[in-house]
Amino acid sequence: MKHCPAEFKADAVALYRSRPEATIKSVAADLGVNTETLQNWIRAADGRRPGTHSEPPAASRASNDDVQAELAAARKRMRELEEEQDILRKAARYFATDTRW
User: Fold this and answer.
1) Residue-range definition of the domain harbouring residue 68
2) What is the pLDDT along the chain (101 residues), one digit of tens a residue?
């Protein structure tokens, strides 16, 4: 068994949470750690004892809801900015070809 630094564990949990489409198994494989180990790190980050399957405390659930709402708002803003950028690219392309007299 190798010992992983706390920073690596925190980064692994953050990576898993930043990729909602990813599974614990896929993230663990990418990092080269056991699936159970990553699961324990996630539980520990949620304030639960590793090896338990109970729900996180109510305060943790509430803060998780806040984070999810903030993430949804950030994703919406990102989509808006990407649309604006796409419009500007198309306009620049149009005007670049329209300058020939």
Assistant:
1) 57-101
2) 568 888 999 999 999 999 888 899 999 999 999 999 999 999 998 887 655 555 555 555 667 888 889 999 999 999 999 999 999 999 988 888 866 55
Per-residue buried b or exposed e for 59-82, using 16+ beta carbons within 10 Å of the residue's own CB: eeeeeeeeeeeeeeeeeeeeeeee
Q: What are 86's two structure tokens? A: 């796409």
pTM of the predicted model as reported, rounded to 2 decimal places: 0.47
Please give the DSSP secondary-structure letter assigned to residue 100: -
Number of domains in the chain: 2
Q: How far is CA 52 from CA 17, 40, 72, 86, in A?
A: 19, 9, 29, 47
Indicate if 38 and 86 belong to the same structural domain. no
CB under 8 Å to 33, separation ≥6 — which residues? 4, 12
